[in-house]
Amino acid sequence: VEFWNETVDGLCRSGNFQAAIQYVSKLHAGGFSSNMVTYNMLLGALCKAQRLEAASKLLDEMVYSGCMPTLSLWNSLIDAFCKAGETAAALQMFSKMRSGGGSPDKLTFSSVTHGLCKKGKLAEANRFVEDMRKDKIAPDILLWCVLIEALSVIGNFDEALEVTSRMASDGCFPDVATYSILIKGLCRANRVNDAMRLLDEMHANGLCPDEVINTAILTSLFRAGREDEAIKRIDKLAASGYRIT
RNA sequence: CCUGCGG
Q1: A103 touches strand B (CB under 7 A)
Q2: Quick check: A38 CB within 7 A of strand B?
Q3: CA A97 – CA A101 distance, rounded (Å)
Q4: CA A200 to CA A223: how far, in whole Å?
Q5: CB of A212 lies under 7 Å from some atom of strand B
Q6: Which residue approaches B7 most closely, CA to C1'?
Q7: Using CA of residue A33, residue A35, residue A38, residue A39, what is the dihedral sign?
Q8: How many CA atoms lie within 13 A of A218 on its CB side?
Q9: Residue nearest to nucleotide B1 (CA to C1')
């Protein structure tokens, strides 16, 4: 088995999925059965390559033959489907995971929530987060950010900020990425002044804006015809040793 | 060891 796994691993690494799958089914036809390692490798590779049709086929075969994916493989699978916008399929896997005795973790929930949010299914996403709490899993900053991002893309900044403070009262404090989501959203909505207010708040919290934030602010200042202010900021950034592009 | 957030 170890030898086949090496072979499968090699084929996957060189992008030869078709060959890897054929190789495995040939072994099966010869009466050999693969183990979890084989499936995990092959499926992990298929996820990365976004060969989702092949992945779900293989998943069914795997489960049918009595092998359950590991937690991280479930997460890779579910996330791959979410990223492809296939949230329905992802949710099916989620239930398959549960019925197979698997316990979703915060990554699983976060991937699905992210997928639902990207599809604009905010209500469903929130329900999902409720389920997660029922599972005694506390949202972490990454999950909060997913929700904040979803609100901010629909321009609902009031609620996005409310979620931000709820998260802080939960002991999760906004980080640079959190601010980035909010600031970029505000810039997109041409609310540069509000964005700069958040920038100040961020400084007050001892956080330093990164390039993502700086370029968002600068480009929207330019877009608003406020080049004088933009230039001033660029000078200030340059003075503090920032590289300007 | 492989899997989740802004860019």
Answers
A1: no
A2: no
A3: 7
A4: 21
A5: yes
A6: A212
A7: positive
A8: 17
A9: A72
Specify whether the CB–CB gap between A204 and A220 falls below 8 A.
Answer: no
Site of tokens 């084989």: A38
Q: Which token pair is A114? A: 């992210």
Within 7 A of a protein CB, which nucleotides of strand B?
1-7
Q: Could you report the per-residue pLDDT of A86-106, keeping only the tens digit for each?
A: 999 999 999 999 999 999 999
The burial of A182, by beta-carbon neighbours within 10 Å (0-12 exposed, 13-18 middle, 19 or more buried), is given as buried
Question: Which nucleotide, over all strands, has the C1' atom closest to the CA of A112?
Answer: B4
Structure tokens at A140: 């972490």
ipTM surpassing 0.90: yes
The tens digit of pLDDT for each residue in A102-131 reads: 999 999 999 999 999 999 999 999 999 999
Angle between helices A36-48 and A52-64 (to 10 degrees): 160
Q: Report how far residue A46's alpha carbon sits from residue A49's, in angstroms, rounded to the nearest whole number.
A: 5
Is the minimum distance from the CB of A110 to strand B below 7 Å?
Answer: yes
**A73 is near strand B: CB distance < 7 Å:** yes
Q: Give CA angle at A170 (A168, A173), nearest 5°.
A: 30
